[in-house]
Every structure is written in C-alpha cells, then in structure tokens.
Amino acid sequence: MRLDRALAALVPELSRERVKALILAGHVLGPGGKPANDPALKVSAQSAFALSIPQAAPAEAVAQHIDLVIPYEDDHLIVIDKAPGMVVHPAAGNPDGTLVNALLHHCAGQLSGIGGVARPGIVHRIDKDTSGLLVVAKTDQAHEGLARQFKDHSIDRRYLAIVSGRPAPPSGTVNQWIGRSDADRKKMAVQREGRGKHAVTHYRTLQPLDRAALVECRLETGRTHQVRVHMAHIGHPLLGDPVYGRGGPHKSLLAELGFRRQALHAAKLGFIHPVTSQALSFESPIADDMQQLFSHLCV
Predict the structure, then answer these.
(1) Tell me, what's the pLDDT at 247?
(2) Which of 171, 167, 161, 162 is nearest to 235 (CA)?
(3) How far apart are CA 116 and CA 112, in angstroms?
(4) pLDDT digits (tens, 9 = 90+) for 199-241
(5) C-alpha–C-alpha distance, residues 123 and 137, integer Å
(6) Which of 181, 214, 228, 259 is the most buried (most CB within 10 A)?
(7) Which domains are seen in the chain, by residue range?
(8) Which residues are known catalytic residues?
(9) CB crowding 138-168: b at 16 or more within 10 Å, else e
(10) Per residue in 21-76, pLDDT tens?
C-alpha cells in the first residue's frame, strides 16, 4: 500500500491530502529515523513510521466577536443560520465582519486545522444578502466528508424564494448550464452546454401571491447564484434582486418596506454527519424582512 493511503487509514481524523502534505513537509520518519518524503512509497504491514502533526498555524483572518444563531454544533462541525447582510468569507471589500471572522472567535481552541491552518472549513457559501442555513467543518476529517457529499450532490438544500409573477407550470426543473456572463463578468448567466458548469434546480410553487409567488427551490447542484439565475431565466426573477431582477410592479412596495436584497432564504439543510454517519436535517424560519414582504403580497 502507498504510504499516504496507509497513514490516512490509520489516522482517520486526517484527510489523505493532509497526510500527503505532512509527508512532503518532512513530518513522517521511516525506518532508522530518516524522513520519508515520498507519499507513493510502497510500505508493508511490518514497516514502522513515525508521524508528527505540527500545531495548526493561526488563520490569517482576525477573530471577531459577532453574534451567531447556531442550530447545531459538536466537536466536528457547526451549523449556522446566517443573517442577511453577512459575508461568508473575507475578500476584497469585506476584509472583516464576516462569518469566518465570527467563527474564529466562537470556535477558538476547537479548530484542529483544515489543511494545517486553524480555520473553519467552508464547504459551501450563500450570498451576502441571502439568509439561512449553512454547515461549516471544524476538523479536516469533517471537511473532507462534507466536501465529498457536496461533490456527489447528496446534500439536501432547499431555498424559499419570492419571485415576480406566477410560474407556469407551477412546478418544474430548470436544467441549464451556468457560467460567467459574456456581457458582464461580474454576473453569472445561463450558457450553452459545455460552457460553465452543469446546474439543476427543481422548483415548486408553494403559494400564489399578488403578481408574485412563494417558491421552493431544491438544488441538485450548487453553482454561484444558481437559484437567482435559473428563476430569472424562466421569466420569474427574485423580488429585490439587484443583479438579475427586472424591476416590475413591486418597486414601490420594496421601497416602502426598505427591502434591498434578493428575496431568498436557505430554509432547509440535510446531510449525513461525516464522522458519526448520523442523518441530520435542519429547518430555518423565513427571515423577518422577507416574512414582512410575504405578508404584504398575500392575496
């Protein structure tokens, strides 16, 4: 068996990629105390190796005390019910005040290191102005397991959206590739097959509203702006969406309510715990501002 595969099997809290990095960094000693620097080295059951795991390096982002709504947390992962307006990860224009900054404070001393860095493992994101549920890994093992589930599309993710108009038919599937817009590289757009990434959204109308509808969108894939792009593509953009919206008859109501974001809420999240194998499912009540908008639109 390869050295990296053998060590990963013996130390399940480390991903194989993490083990490989430790081998290449000289943290594995073979017979005679000599560094074993080749992850592909063939080893037998009688071979003796010493693996040392250095303390996780501090994250570059700054820990900040920011209140969080936490539906679930254990030693391996944490589920967050994110408020609208919070950016998930620091980036240009948002260097702090993000979910990552908040988690570095909340999880201080609990992060075993994702890839050798004491940081939360972000396996998926939701837009700044989208509210609702997301799961974050605390350990390398949880990060790898969650990432695998997102890759094979076995995560149950359901969003609630208030869209302009009433979809006809009231339920269906949008199976359209999504990539960067040719006209505006800051936007995503439906593209012909083979350009961008394959994306599938299953939608169903939950309640007709005044020239609008409350729609549930179940994601089979998880592409950037997927719900927003797909619903706009079929002629029903999300109310309040500053990028993909097309205005319409609700402008005055949105202004009156001060509603300045896309009407989108990550309402349900279900997955298999990557360490305990327990099936977990969480639901989040619709955010207050979106609830107010919904109430004003009820027929």
Answers:
(1) 67
(2) 167
(3) 8
(4) 999 999 999 999 999 999 999 998 999 999 999 999 999 999 9
(5) 7
(6) 228
(7) 3-51 (3.10.290.10), 57-151 (3.30.2350.10), 156-297 (3.30.2350.10)
(8) 127
(9) bbbbbbbbbbebbeeeebbbbbbbbbbbebe
(10) 888 888 888 887 888 888 888 888 888 888 887 776 665 678 899 999 999 999 99
Sole residue written with tokens 């409350």 = 214
**Share of residues in the chain with pLDDT > 70 (%):** 95
Question: Does 114 have pLDDT greater than 90?
Answer: no
Which residue reads 């909340």 in tokens? 106
pLDDT band with cut points at 50, 70 and 90 for residue 267? very high
Q: Report how far apart, in Å, the C-alpha atoms of 46 and of each of 42, 63, 187, 243 are.
A: 12, 45, 56, 61
For the chain, give the longest Cα–Cα distance.
79
Q: Among 209, 171, 206, which residue's Cα sits nearest to residue 298? A: 209
Structure tokens at 225: 């702006």
Tokens read off for 291 = 């609830």
Sign of CA dihedral 91, 93, 95, 96: negative
